[in-house]
Write a structure and sequence with these properties.
By secondary structure, this protein is an alpha/beta fold. It is 44% helix and 13% strand. The structure holds zinc ion (ZN). Zinc ion binds next to loops.
Length: 303
Amino acid sequence: MKRTILFFFSLSGLIFTTYGQQSSGIKKIPIIDMHLHALWWGESSIVGPLGLKAPKDPAAMRDSTFYYLKKYNIVKAVTDDAFALDYFHHDPQRIIPARQGISPLLRDSVDSLRHWFQAGTYKLIAEFMPQYIGFRPDDPEMEAYFQVADEFNIPVGIHLGIGKAGFANFTIANANPLYLENVLRKHPNLRIYVMHAGYPFISEMIALMATYPQVYVDIAVINWVLPRKEFHYYLQRLVDAGFGKRIMYGSDEMMWPQSIPISIENIRSAAFLTDQQKENVFYNNAADFLRLSAEEIKKDKAQ
Ligand SMILES: [Zn+2]
């Protein structure tokens, strides 16, 4: 009997401790998603990686996305693609609208970007995707985009790394993070983050971040499509190299909103990170990068 009671108490203590850690250290903290897509690819993409199922139409997609944003206390989300402004009008406090500039589907004129930045319509260039249409970041044709971002102090999130197959001009060689060096030398004040942390180019990514302290990364998509062990290996390399303050959470939610909890859990479960380091990845680093005001940060942390 005594043993049963002891067992019960130690078990409830365990549950209480675990829950307490989550609620004080991790679960309640606000999250900034630096990489969210607002689109719906259609019937052909209903079943995604890991067997995840997509909502049945764009309206269900939006509802499901906002359900997860709220459930996980994602207080801000950099959001691009076709429905970015629709999502923004739905929840202007939470959604930061971004324009891709270059993607397989569009190529904005620099005049359009200038107009939108002047009007405040879009706050970032992201997800900028020269790699998907066959360009290195330092191709002369990309220069005007970095130029306009620099001119308006607009942050750029650039896709570098593995990607969705099936685009004729997509090559992995163009993902090498070192191809950003010429851009950074030309635009030393450019606020830029490398999406997917340039996976799998870890050495090149570390070399770039060590040399250019203004470069941040997001860990979107690699935090749910890769085997957890491989994602942890990559994340730990970046942290051990000293960049724990420049790694930002992103989901790369594109069609399967259940990817959001998976991507969060794969960071929470990283035993090599302290609660403080996790909080930096989930919120503080992005708040620094986006230059949120002390007032905004206070408001986010009160949620
Ligand atoms: Zn991407």
